[in-house]
Design a protein that fits this description.
The protein is built from 11 helices and 9 strands. With 250 residues, the protein is an alpha/beta fold. The strands form 2 sheets. A 6-stranded parallel beta sheet has the order 3-2-1-7-8-9, with helices on both faces. Strand 4 and strand 5 form a beta hairpin. The longest helix has 17 residues.
Length: 250
């Protein structure tokens, strides 16, 4: 209700003349599929310090550990499926007649498997390998031992295509341009603690977008949103997508 109250005119105009939507998704949307989240008990990094598995220094000092860690994460994808929230965003992608960009902080492939196409993996992807020599990327399915050769340049320097801490996330210029054009920015299942994604809501508001948070708990950046809806992504996201698409149909 807050979003409609604070930005009612702009939101109703977008329903009549579909505008631009940017959606950010985080670990919370995939947690309901059984993928462990970054923080808290049972989180993805349990048993490993971040510095041991997600920094360039870790890769250089113990490549066996880092490669094995992501091999396990990649293999675990076979046991999970997209949930209702992933499928709802895929419906939005297929049906929304205006501009749409779904930006995910997640490295799993659940958005793609649900059918989403207009998206960016800003932190990389488990099912991709990156050449540290020539920066070429290629799809990857199985284990990725240290010293695997690049199919483009031949250098034995393939690594997990993951944006490590201290590295620049992918497609930042494209994301910033989308935020500048957005009529609506929606954040789903994010902690609001990891930058630069945590700053997207402030950028969107600066450019004049309405902002909405859908999260299991209030994020660290909840106060920056015009409206926060608290609950499971599997319930909140389909309801929101239904409302948006119904508004267009009307």
């Amino acid at each position: 209700m807050g979003l409609l109250r604070l930005h009612g005119t702009r939101y109703r105009r977008m329903m009549r003349d579909p505008g631009s939507i940017v959606v950010l998704t985080g670990a919370g949307i995939s947690a309901e599929s059984g993928i462990a989240t970054f923080r808290g008990p049972g989180g993805l990094w349990e048993g490993h310090r971040v510095d041991d598995v997600c920094t360039p220094e870790a890769l250089a000092s113990d490549p066996d550990l880092v490669h094995h860690f992501y091999d396990l994460r990649r293999a675990a994808l076979a046991a999970v499926e997209p949930n209702a929230a992933h499928r709802a965003l895929a419906r939005l992608d297929a049906a929304w007649p205006g501009a749409l960009l779904i930006v995910t902080q997640n490295v799993d492939d659940l958005h793609e498997r649900a059918g989403t196409r207009r998206m960016i993996h800003m932190h990389g992807a488990l099912k991709s390998a990156l050449c540290a020599a020539c920066a070429a990327r290629q799809p990857w399915q199985g284990t990725l031992p240290p010293g695997t050769s690049c199919s483009v340049c031949g250098a034995p320097m393939l690594r997990p295509d993951i944006v490590f801490f201290g590295e620049i996330p992918y497609a930042m210029e494209m994301i910033e341009a989308a935020l500048a054009r957005a009529d609506l920015f929606v954040s789903i299942g994010t902690s609001g603690a990891v930058y630069p994604a945590a700053g997207f809501v402030r950028s969107a508001r600066h450019y004049g977008a309405a902002t909405l948070e859908l999260n299991l708990d209030p994020s660290e950046g909840s106060s920056f949103f015009h409206e926060s809806r608290i609950g499971p992504a599997g319930l909140l996201v389909p309801a929101w997508v239904d409302a948006v698409l119904a508004g267009v149909a009307a």
